[in-house]
Amino acid sequence: MPRFRHFMAIDWSGALGPRQKGIAVALCDLDGTPRLLRPQSHAHWSREEVLRLLLDGLPEDTLVGLDLGISLPFADAGAFFPDWPDSPPDARALWALVDTVCAQDEHLAAASFVDHPELSAYFRRHGGREGARFHLPAALHRRGRMRVTEEAQARAGCKPYSNFNLVGAAQVGKSSLTGMRLLHRLGAALPVWPIDPLPESGSVVTEIYTTLAAVAAGRTAGRAKVTDRAALNHALSALGSAPVTGTGPIDDHSADALLTAAWLRTAAPRADLWKPVDLTPELARTEGWTFGAA
Asked: Is domain 6-70+190-274 given the CATH code 3.30.420 in the classification?
């Protein structure tokens, strides 16, 4: 089990544009004091700046949690895109495909992928455009196909949505696809658990779901979002972390990042969270997993 010394949570965004109000980055050290990190010359992060931070700006032995889906459903159909002859065989090949198809999309966007003449059939898009293969094979939920780890999230009281769904405030499909471009460009610089084995030392990237951190801090899944500092500090206290300074409102992206960075400090030493019962080598290679989902 690696001895992580720093814990970073990144609330991600799949929105269009060069800079994203929805991206927040927080860092917590072993002393339990989470803090927000800001880009050097702008009010908001770009996705490219986050990529550079991961490649060149991480403290040693950092566990990095990305709030996005690192892959798409595979186990339910034996493929990401059933019946498409070019469907990639594993998560890393999927990341490469997304980045290649979206090579002309600026700012690590992924519009070209969801508008692809064949791939679009697997997604639910805005304007009532539900692809003919969105529910194939027969999905267990109206929310679309789910990964095995998302079923584990649901057992914890969460309400995950399919990464093939690109509609609604709760969707994570767009952020997941843009995140796959980032993961592909990380290359071999950082292992991504569980796509890659957990190393004995060094920094690691993993998928997080900020609602799991909120539940661990005593909030319910339905009240996971925090928008004032008093409530945030109450949750941080439940995790044994120091409060943030100031009073009054705080945006939910910043609160999610701060709370989840603090939670990672408490969760990382738990051996059981690195060995989920349902996580097989095949799932690790294809669908990945959400750290903290039992």
From this structure: yes
